[in-house]
Description:
alpha/beta, Rossmann fold, 2 domains, 10 helices, 14 strands
Amino acid sequence: xxxxxTGGAGYIGSHAVRELRDAGHAVSVxxxxxxxxxxxxxxxxxxxxxxxxDEAGLAEALAGADAVMHFAGLLSVAESVxxxxxxxxxxxxxxxxxxxxxxxxxxxxxxxxxxxxxxxMPVRTPMDEEHPQAPINPYGASKRAFERALxxxxxxxxxxxxxxxxxxxxxxxxxxSLGEDHxxxxxxxxxxxxxxxxxxxxxxxxxxxxETPDGTCIRxxxxxxxxARAHVLAxxxxxxxxxxxxxxxxxxxxxxxxxxxxxxxxxxGRPVPAEVGPRRAGDPPRLVASAxxxxxxxxxxxxxxELDAIVETAWRWRRDQPRGYGDQP
Length: 329
């Protein structure tokens, strides 16, 4: 299949590009490179450098495509609170422009990179796809709004769609060729590794008094390569005729902040200096996925589900690429 990957030079998108190529699909990428990295793309991959809202760039990128994997968007919860206009403008308005361009190009299949932030504060865990949706920040609300648009388009027979709601993506490609290179970095595992490497003065733990076994927040970590595999499985489901479906993507078990720190210390053999600070507004104490639907309908099972295995791949990347993709030609 010929697949256009929007945001394909980013963290998760680049892993999906590699997985699609290895599965025999013809891949092209649309990315404005504001957050992505040209060096993350394999040689020979067609790249259209363009903003998601640019009509000419979309038309060029969609030419000849059979399906779209849509990763392009903004993803910082904290930034979304201070700049909601950017999040609704990109994650909703520009994404709707993508759907219009798909219609003009005759492309009617899309896999959407969504998030567990559409649920908001959990009323039960593990959280299945029927969990109430009440996003507590503009990031989650913008993703929820575009999911609703996709559902309406699918109901009107305009496209076929699968939305994949990630929990906490983590890790790097097992062969060391792809990694997590964000500026600024906000994710716990790379921050803890950088603290172990002495690249930052220490790690701030946001709250130590939650109602969890060790007082710190619990999250469900899923390896980025497993996420990429799930996208290929979802594409195959669309090709079999799936009209509209949402799936959680998680490992189905949670780890606390202190457990992550212990894993980083065990994998690296180095201490992680850390101090407990105040809670961060809007942080749920526990977010854990029910991934039963993805297992039963897509045949998805994480291959790198153990926390130490996830941390080890991230450690190898950050140790060997201290400047991220800046160390690559």
